Amino acid sequence: MENKKKNPVATIILAIISILWMYPIVLILINSLKKESAITTSGVFSIPNKETWNGLSNFVASVTQMDFLKSFWYSLIISVMSVVLILLCCSMCAWYIVRVNGKLSKLFYYLCVFSMVVPFQMVMFTLAKTADTLKLNSPYSICIIYLGFGAGLAVFMFTGFVKGIPLEIEEAALIDGCSPLQVYFQILIPILKPTIISTAILELMWVWNDYLLPTLVLDIKQYRTIPMAVQYFRGSFGHVQMGPMMASIMIDIIPIIIVYLVCQKYIIEGVVAGAVKG
């Protein structure tokens, strides 16, 4: 009975927190539908009316200006390639760490975990020079850099989950004639599916919204991701095109929201499975 009395209070608190989290997105959506003058005169908090309504004009302007579609393509390529590389390499690495369980593998695991606490600002200038030297300064090779920075979290998550997988399953597959690669792709990957999706969403949100790393590594004039392109919606003397900028931010947000909504059930399964096995 006591738990039932607390449930409405918890629901109200979580509802308030959800509204606070959603409010900035709603605010951006409202301003993306208003005229440029209405955003600066009537204020960013006002709801569009007949005089301030601008329809989808801001979205059209955001797509046609600054090669926004090209920036969207670069963001998509970088995000997909980086996430796939992180998931593949880090899941294999976690599998090796858990099954070998030697001093060297444990040292490598602790190094991966330690990399999560190293501030990016400490290595960004050296990283930019190294990227230029190794020719990693293109949208098709920057995924290797993202692999290095995203490996810490991914290895940590995969290692915790692989520890809960019985070794007998893999031994039975090996006895039946499977090779290590067959065991990995046909046995381990299906079991790791909830964790793979959970890790993929976390890494995707980071790579998709990242501004600093592409700015340091890529050629700004030739390659621009969406976060890089958004800042160019400004004219002379510091004038900012607020309408197209808000619309471009909404276009940037929508793919991540869709991916999260589609994969939400798998995230919950991953958390529950990790809790049961832990």
Could you walk me through the main structural features you see in this protein, from its secondary elements to its overall organization?
There is one protein chain. By secondary structure, the chain is mainly α. Helices cover 74% and strands 0% of the residues. The protein is built from 13 helices and no strands. α1 runs antiparallel to α13 (242-277) and α5 (103-115) packs across α7 (143-162).
> Which whole number gives the mean pLDDT?
84
Structural shape? globular
Please state the CA-atom Rg, rounded to the nearest Å. 23 Å
- Separation of the first and last Cα atoms: 29 Å
Strand content: under 5%
- What oligomeric state is this? single chain
Helix content: over 70%
* Helical stretch tally: 13
* Order of secondary-structure elements: HHHHHHHHHHHHH
Would you identify the regions where 5 or more consecutive residues have pLDDT less than 50?
Answer: 274-278
Question: What's the layout of helices and strands?
Answer:
Elements: H1 2-32, H2 36-41, H3 57-64, H4 68-100, H5 103-115, H6 124-133, H7 143-162, H8 167-175, H9 180-191, H10 193-209, H11 212-217, H12 226-230, H13 242-277
Helix pairs in contact: 1-13, 3-13, 4-5, 4-7, 4-10, 5-7, 7-10, 8-9, 10-13
